[in-house]
Amino acid sequence: MTKPPTAASKLDRPEILASIFSPVKLKRTSAPLSSSDLEIIVSGTDVSLGCRLHAGSSDGPLIIFFHGNGETVADYDDIGQAYNQAGINILIATYRGYGWSTGEPSVTALFEDNIKILEFISSHCRDLALNGPVFIMGRSIGSASAIDLVHRCPEQVKGLIIDSGFADTLPLAKRLGYNLTGADITEEDCFNNIVKIREITLPTLILHGQRDQVIPLAEAERLQAECGARIKQFQIIPGADHNSLIEVAGRLYFAAIKKFTDTVSGQNTWRQRRKQFKKDAE
């Protein structure tokens, strides 16, 4: 059963939204081979969310990925192919006003649109016979989408992956140049990641750059400490900053994610590894 959204209307002020979101408009580009674009219409509105699905394995896990601020789905074309090579299907989800999506971003719309994306892709994957388990992942501001979606829809997914995520909103807003002092806003009025992740019991993987200056490592450490999951992993990428986790870690980045999804879905057992070893030796 889907939990109701956390009230976040206090953030939906024009001056605050301008500091939270940095939408990048982009004309629709051609999808890479084996990839496809999905236009998700938000019911009751004329808003269209332009997402991109990179599918390479009928039984591989599917990651619904919420990208960072100032990014678009097209920025992940090469990365999407790398996920496919690792045996992972990935949907690059987006937000209103980003890429070729219509509408204007807001916190309230963000949380509601995430539910629509999950519902749409779940049905779409059934139509495509993509039968693997579903995981939710978010990078940077996308971590708020991922945490909220897993918090609200735990029965529909297998686990949570956070890349360069944040624990508290107010310190982040201050680092980004917006002082909320005197704005009558508390942490509970914001994304509320800490409170939500305390109630998440699904397996969780947190990845963070050691030298992240936008969202310091201490934020990820707090998410890890407060996470309510019994099965949780924390990977620090030495030498990586906020935007260089994949560049620094290389293939190990995707290997860590694949190992996590396989372990959670029961594919990383001794028998499975032996079977794969024999297959590779043939």
Summarize, please.
The chain is an alpha/beta fold and 282 residues long. It is 36% helix and 17% strand.
Describe what this molecule looks like in 3D.
- This protein is α/β, with parallel strands linked by helices and 282 residues long.
- The protein has a single domain (9-281), classed as 3-Layer(aba) Sandwich (Rossmann fold), CATH 3.40.50.
- 36% of the residues lie in helices and 17% in strands.
- Strands 1-2-4-3-5-6-7-8 form an 8-stranded mixed β-sheet, sandwiched between helices.
- A hairpin with a 6-residue loop joins strand 1 (35-41) and strand 2 (48-54).
- The radius of gyration is 18 Å and the shape is globular.
- The termini are far apart.
What descriptors fit this protein?
282 residues, alpha/beta, Rossmann fold, eight-stranded mixed sheet, globular
